[in-house]
Amino acid sequence: MSEHAEDLKSDDITGGDRPLALPAELPILPLRDTVLFPNSFMPLAVARESSVRLIDDAIADGKLIAVFAQRDAAVEEPEQSDLYPVGTATHIHKMFKLPDGSLRLIVQGLARLTLEQLTATKPYLRARVRAADEDTNDADRLEIDALARNIKTNFQQVVSLSPLLSDDLQTLATNITEAGRLADFIASSLTTISTAVKQEVLETLDVRARMDSLNRILIKELEVLELGSKIQSQVQSEVGKNQREYFLREQMKAIQKELGEGDDQTKEIEELADKIEAVGMPDSVKKEALRELDRLSKMPAAAAEYTVSRTYLDWLVTLPWAKRTDEVIDLPHTKSVLDADHSGLEKAKDRILEYLAVRKLNPAVKGPILCFVGPPGVGKTSLARSIAESLGRKFVRVSLGGMRDEAEIRGHRRTYIGALPGQIIQGLRRAESKNPVFILDEIDKLGSDFRGDPSSALLEVLDPEQNNTFRDHYLDVPFDLSEVLFITTANVLDPVPPPLRDRMEVLEIAGYTEEEKLQIATDHLVEKQVRNHGLTSEQMQFTPEALRQVIRGYTREAGVRNLEREIGALCRKAARQRAEGNEDIVVVTPEVVVQMLGAPKFLDEEMEERTKEPGVAIGLAWTAAGGEVLFIEASRMAGTGSLTLTGQLGDVMKESARAALSWLRTHAREYNIDPDFFKSAEMHIHVPSGAIPKDGPSAGVTMTAAMASQLTGRPVRGDLAMTGEITLSGRVLPVGGIKEKVLAARRVGIHEVILPKQNGKNVNEDLTPELRKDLVVHLVSSIDEVLALALQPVSTDVPRQTKKPARQTGHASPPSR
Ligand SMILES: Nc1ncnc2c1ncn2[C@@H]1O[C@H](COP(=O)(O)OP(=O)(O)OP(=O)(O)O)[C@@H](O)[C@H]1O
Ligand SMILES: [Mg+2]
Predict the structure, then answer these.
(1) Is the per-residue pLDDT at 298 higher than 80?
(2) How many C-beta atoms lie closer than 10 Å to residue 800's C-beta?
(3) Who lines ligand 1 at CB under 6 A?
(4) Residues contacting residue 551 through CB under 8 Å, at least 6 positions apart
(5) Alpha helix (H) ranges present in 445-494?
(6) What residues have CB less than 8 Å from 14, skipping those under 6 apart?
(7) Atom 24 of ligand 1 has which residue's CA nearest to it?
(8) Does the pLDDT of residue 692 top 80, yes or no?
(9) Among candidates 416, 436, 217, which has minimal Cα distance to 319?
(10) N or C: which end of the chain has fewer CB within 10 A?
(11) Which letter does DSSP use for residue 206 in this model?
(12) Which protein residue has the closest C-alpha to ligand 1 atom 9?
């Protein structure tokens, strides 16, 4: 490195332990940007002309100089005020001369000096100096030791964290025993602290104070380093993650390419674009779809958004925007299909044919919303299904039973996780046609709660005026529902909200008579069940008597569902016999029925039995399941004039019981009842089948009859059923569901009924000739008439009459029964 190096011996000069023989005046070498500590070595570059001269002279003269740091490194010719007051006596160890005339030195600090007074400035600075003695107080010994230890640990950490400090420094520091020297050594090793700070350490003569301030410097340094390394590692891991992902993605692409899977995403997007063109969306929808597609094409396939957007587009392109089944309106054909599937149901079938006729003449007509109302098992759902078939349209069915959430009809907004369109749109996708027959089953079982009211969403669906722009929350584009033929079904209309009811055309499908059931069984159910059980009509047959026996003895219902089930049960037994090797044809007769199904479940005698005692009357009620026969029981016990009502009666029914009691108390004398009976009695009215809630005013006459019977001791006739609302003045008011009620009476073998006079119109219009045959109808307008008909004669020794000669009160009763 050098041309001219002089190895300078230092035998005569020592630092540290041995006292230094210090001349009173020394040449001063100003230092820029560095501080030289006693006992440390340091390389120096000397270029200033005056300084080169100084070194030359010094080497010739004992190699001892003084170095003082400059306050401002920029000053070229420093004076005393430009130098810090404390410096270091320095021995020049080595010197190299560089070709450009500048020097490189290795110097060793010896001891602290104070600059007293400059004595010369030319050719270089000289000054009077004085040794600055370190100040160690023995009292501080312990503290200094502790500080020294602390400093060593901190320094170790600084060294291990700092990339600039060599690890050897740690070992060197550990070996220094003298506290002041330790502080000097560390201060001079730290490369990051400023000259001013180093100078401060140099100037602190009190060892303890010096160590204190050094310790603070170390702690600060440590904090800075720790923070730095934290930032460093954060940055590193950030960069690492990104790089890793990038790397993996590139690898994946390469693998896909290798496997020939190419660019799936582009392919997918191209496919979607083709589909959007092909499905025939309206322009506004298409615009929306293309916008979404554009969004999709800019997303990475791995993004969660991607799937959401992709699913949405899938829905859009699979809906039947323009797909419809061709409709050939052929009335005779339709009629024959409807007739082939269902016996009876004339009214409903006629209505359908009328609708088709209108449509044929005016294809633009808006589809009506039909609502089939009737008890369970009368064929509402299956009729709707065969309407679809007869029209050659697709068929979808959605059960509304128990739906509580508006979103089930109209879908969730796309912002929800896992959002889907509502049932209407889902149904249309299933139908794959925009003009299917769409059945909304059980519309009376719609619920509603805090999640919204599904019926309000249905309002829009079912309104022909606005359903051509039905907007599902998920799709968020309008869909035209106007070509859909909606058919709804319900057991009763009461729970259906009036605005919804208003949009539908109600077709009542009443329960079936025994004859109708027999017809249905013969024409449809037997064949269907026999076939379903893997048998043929050659292997199994039913006699009409057997079917009648099943209808009477094993079912009690308005529809035919249980009948079908019992027929199924018979087929099952026959199938088993066959499977077990008995190849004989099975002919089901009434005896076979009993043999296979056990004893009949329902018997006619029950009626007579239950009304033997006074106080029990037979009423007719109307429920969602069709008509129903009710027993109303009244009893009297000692008490203080109270009325107890049990059997889960609704408020209206309770009130009619009170009205009945009041009427009886008013008219007690006319029936030979003690007018004061209620003072010492308690009446109890019970309607059995206590688990079933009952309500309505139509049991008024029955309750009156039951109480009158109890109070007079005259039993009520057991072959007579009644219905009618009462007033306090003793009038009988009309009630609903006449056909269902009469059917119910007929089912239990009752042929004589008391009905309000004002229901005479229903008797004429609603009852089929078959129903009216064998039926005695008494049309009454007052309670007196009811009691005259219902209560048995007073004398108890006359044997009880069960079959009375037919009486005729109303014009509706046929002459004989
Ligand atoms: N008039 C009929 N002719 C032929 N089959 C019938 C007739 N009425 C009902 N059925 C048969 O009775 C069964 C029950 O009918 P369906 O399921 O349509 O009843 P529903 O009126 O919809 O009852 P729910 O109110 O309980 O839904 C079906 O198998 C159906 O084919
Ligand atoms: Mg149904």
Answers:
(1) no
(2) 13
(3) 342-345, 376-382, 489, 491, 520, 524, 559-561, 564
(4) 514, 517, 518, 521, 563
(5) 454-461
(6) 20, 110
(7) 376
(8) no
(9) 436
(10) N
(11) B
(12) 379
